[in-house]
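At this stage, I put together a protein sequence along with its fold in C-alpha cell form, as given directly below:
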Amino acid sequence: MKILIKNAKVITPLVVLKNYSVSIENKKIKDIKKSGSFNENNFDKIINVGNKYLSPGFIDIHNHGNSGYDTMNSTFKAIDSIAKFHLKNGVTGFLPTTMTASYKKIKEAIKNVADFIEDKQNKNSQVLGLYVEGPYFSQIKKGAQPTKYIKNPDIEEVEKLIKISNGNIKVVALAPELPGSLETISYLKKRGITVSTGHTNATYSQTKVGIERGITQATHLYNGMREFSHREPGVLGAILTDERVACEIICDRIHLHDAAIKIAVKMKNINDIILISDAMMATGLKDGEYTLGSQKVIVKNGEARLSSGNLAGSTLTLNKAVYNMVHFVDIPLKDAVRMATLNPARSLGVNKRKGSIEIGKDADLIIFDDNIDISIAMVNGKILYSKKK
C-alpha cells in the first residue's frame, strides 16, 4: 500500500520541516517533500495531518508495564496489553523490562517475551527485545529491587538467560563493583548486548574500570546510585564526564529535579540522553494498591512507592516525558523527540532502520499536537492506533 502523509510539521534529527509531506511504500519511508509536490493520484491512502507534528515513533527501552500488567506476569496477554497501551502514548517500539526476582521467575518472564517475539501468529512488531534489570545489584542502592534475590553476577547464569531469550536480550543492567561484574561486562560486550550501570554504589574508579570493560549506558541516571561528592565523584562523576556513556532519564518531575536534568544535558549532549518511562503496572490507571514484581506498591497522586517510601518505578508515559523536557527543562522539541527516538534506537543498535524520519527507514511514525497528545500511531506503515474524535 502507498500512503501519503501531508501538511505536516516533520520532525527530523536536525530540523522541523514545516508544511512537508512523507510518502510510505512497502512499510518504509519512500520520500520526503514539500507539501504539494506529490501526485496524490498515486496513493492508496492520504492522511492530512492539518499542520500537526509528524514524528518518529517513540522507543521506550526501559519499562516494566502499564494498564494493570507487568512483564513479570509472564503471559502473552500481559505483553500484548502493554504494547497496545504504549501505542496511545506514541511508543512504536519498546523493551519489556524484567526486575530482580527468583532465577526461575526471571527465566519465565524472559522466555515469555522471547516466545511472544517469535510467535508467527503474533502481529505485534513493537517488541524490540528485552531489558534485564537485575538481580546483579548493590544491596545499598537496591531501590525497589527486592533484597532477597539480589546477588553477584554469574557468567554461566547470564549465558543461560541469553539462550532462553533466543538472543533477544538487548540491555543488561548491573553494578560494576560486584565480584564477577567485570568479567560479565566483557562477556556481554562480546555478545553485542548493551551494558548499563545501575543500582550501584560504585566509586569513580570502579565505574571507570567498568566503562573500560564495556559499560555504555547508565540506568535511570541519579536514581539508585552513589551520591556525588567533590572528593569522591562516584558513579555519577564517571558517567557524566565520560562521552562513552549514554544516560537514561525519567523525566516525570518526581524522580528528578528539573535542574538535575539540565545538568545532565549540559554535561552530556543531546545524543547521549535517553528518555525512559520506567513505568509500572499502575500507569494509565487510578491511584491505589498495585505490585511491582512481588512487592506491594502504593500509588498516590501518580507517585508509585513501596511501604518503605522508596520510589517503585513510575506512572509516566513517554509522550509526557517529551512534553516535560520541552516545557520544564527548556529542551527544543526536535531534541526532546530525538531523546525518545533516535537515541534509544542507537542504544539497541537499530538506528539504521528506526528512530528517525529518513528515506529507507521503517515507517514507524506518530502524529501529535502541541501537547504531545497522540492522534495516530503507525508501525511498519500500518496504523495501529487512531484517536477517536
About this structure: The CA atoms of residues 321 and 371 lie 11 Å apart. Residues 103-118 form the longest helix (16 residues). The longest strand covers residues 2-11. Residues 2-55+356-386 form a domain with the Urease, subunit C; domain 1 fold (CATH 2.30.40.10).
